Amino acid sequence: MILVFFILSFLGFQGCGQSQTASSKRSEFVLSAVMYKGIVDVKMQEGYSEDEIKKFKKESFLTPGSAFLTESGDLSKVQSDYTETNGTSKRGSIKYIIHAAPGARDARKISDTNLITHFPGDHDKVDMDFEPTIEKIKNSIKNALDLANKNNIQSVAIPLVGGKIFFGRINKGIKPDTKRKSNQEMPAITLVDLARAIVDVALLKKYEKLSVKFVDYGMSKGIRSQYFKSQLAKSQSEMVVYGSGKRGITDFSLHGCDAIINAANIEGEFGGGISGIIGDATGMRDAIDAAVKNKIIEFYNKNYRLL
Q: 173: closest CA among 142, 128, 220?
């Protein structure tokens, strides 16, 4: 039986005291967390003010730009063969999921706690502290790869984090629309910009010992081409992996990586899109969600009890 082993790594956060709200929430997850007996290793993004930390603690959320590592559940049991471009092959499975968390799953109003999911042209009423940005995406990828290094992971497959559900919100609620006229407001970034930002982070010298593959979402031709349009197109195109049909990032034979990055959220839960596909493939998404939430609450109870 695998021993329950939780690790929390955090840079620069200190504090003391206890929150009754966090304690009561924690009790809701204890029984479910027992179902998941693997590692939960969290790396919180530093640099937030005390007031910002109070907001994230109240919701039991990670700080935006954080990342957390879990084991992969049923994915680790699916053994398959992978063939490199040079013809060498290996047999293995996906053992870890590293969750990059750039923002909240749902947008939040500043005036109250009601959730809203669509806000084109209305972002002045949304609490941007919870919103994903390209910088938060870059930080979440950095923290995810730091966790990979810390846990001696040799290879990581990275999807286009932020390229689907979060993309319009990255542009502060302005829905991308290539049919807009030139005199109208356009998105601040493109999918190619997003792909280039992720590539720039992953190819930093500090990660040179990691074998990295950039994987599309499997069935989206629009997103599939974005990595190829980045600087990888000519120099390191062998690092770009294309899925087809149902063959995507959860298929070891597609990329041959020990770990995959999940396009996650600061709630610390599997969501929709690629995150939902990964969560379903683990066979224990609810149990992993509960274990992660329990660890987030433990962190705030230990470090920010008086906030």
A: 128
